[in-house]
Amino acid sequence: MLYNNTMSNKIIECVPNFSEGRDMSIIQQITSAIESVEGAKLLNVDPGKGTNRTVVTFVGNEEQVVEAAFQAIKKAAELIDMRKHTGAHPRFGATDVCPFIPIANATMEDCIACAKKLGERVGKELNIPVYLYEYAASAAHRKNLANVRAGEYEGIAQKISTPDWQPDYGPAKFNELSGNIAIGARDFLIAYNVNLNTTSTRRANSVAFDVREQGRKIKNDKGEEVVQPGSCKSVKGIGWYIPEYKIAQVSMNLTNINTTPVHIAFDECVKSAHQRGMRVTGSELIGLIPLQAMLDAGKYFLEKQQRSTGVSQDDLIHLAIKSMGLDELAPFEPRKRIIEYLLEDAADYTLVNMNLWAFANETASESPAPGGGSIAAYIGALGVSLGTMVANLSSHKKGWDERWKEFSDYAEKGQRIKDELLKLVDEDTRAFNKIMDAFSLPKTTDAEKAARTATIQAATKYAIEVPLKVMELSLQSFDVIKPMAEIGNPNSVSDAGVGALCARSAVYGAYLNVKINASGYKDTAYVQQTLVHANSLLQKAIVLENEVLQTVEQKING
Fold first, then answer.
1. Staple 395 to which of 139, 366, 407, 448, CB 3.0 to 4.6 Å?
2. Which pLDDT tens digit goes with each residue over 77-111?
3. What is the set of domains in the chain, with CATH numbers?
């Protein structure tokens, strides 16, 4: 990924679950303990009254997440009395589970190390029995959280005294106030509930058993008890009743969304419920979800309608929310529930978040940035957007129904190019600012002079790479614009022509920026190679623009 974002550093996610979902003062004290740790970023707090459980999500590097988790566990131990706890969700401790998940530039080994470091400290300083689970598990029978938590809080006193269930850290003694805690390292997991138009836990369980991987136990023709697997791999599920909403739900953990995405789990519940005389009315996401999962869901439901999937991210997300009823029980705010949006620094996209008036005024101001490079990227985004528009209009054109997928593929490619170019609008300005910052570095000593020169050269190279990427992407946009001029909706052929003009201008504008920035770079071999490549891109763009415009003129002139 060429452009900057907050995920350029190592990021680990921590998702502790606390056995309190009703008293907001307790929840706020726990989350405040997390926020007190510098560098730890609180992303989401999701309390549930019926389950009497709160799922908290925060991120940071290894030291930050371990420290924030410890402070949260410590605060929960002070405030939550497990002797008084009741709730629909299985639980055995005040902080019930505390998993670490690799998000960016982090490995599972990093997360295992976090789990062990935290577990040792919790056991030693807080005297809470700690069990390691999933990838951090110390034994095979402890890998599955359900096994670790079996018997729940009420069964701890008996279970903890057996040889197989000695804790990994902390005393092998029942902590009556705080219970136990499971600390682990796992892949990204989505906690997801599907709402049914019934109040019956038994009927909700019947759907859960149809869907979850472990299925249900049945007797075969010989009267032997065997397992009948469910329809979805990497899905765990149970049914429960939520008094708060007066409905039963299928509560699922999707442990590998590449194997079973959210939309497939939802549709399988729809299918099972229908067969059993029930109806799915919506669903509920607990915690956060990756952006791609929402985009894939939106595309899935568009494909079922045989409509173009080449629409904006916002449109795909909106369709996913409505198709799965994610807003049935409470508003679903993408900016607060999608992990990439929460990690995104708004300052990274200062320009593209401006309205047209503000962007033009900023460009026209006495400041040297944004300049030609940012404008070239924006022109390129506009050009491919026009080609994408023609593709979507063609996909929905009356009489062309059988060609919807052909045009949808073009539109989807156009959306990808458009999004990348929009990010480069701000990235070009950041590249310029990096050079300015480098020139302001001290140059008193020989060491400072050498460091300053190296920083200037690194920033200059980056200022070459950004407009070069604009050139490459803008040239790629002809893969959408040219066929749309040739085979797209004839009523929109002039739009394809304007798109070609924009695309060629973007390539040429970015080319000028490559050249001027290359003049300050000392690696002559790199400069020569880059300029040859850039000139080749420009010549191709000029040829393609002419070909598109000839097609447009011919169609307009009849």
1. 407
2. 999 999 999 988 899 999 999 999 998 889 999 99
3. 6-185 (3.30.990.10), 190-335 (3.30.70.670), 346-557 (1.20.120.680)
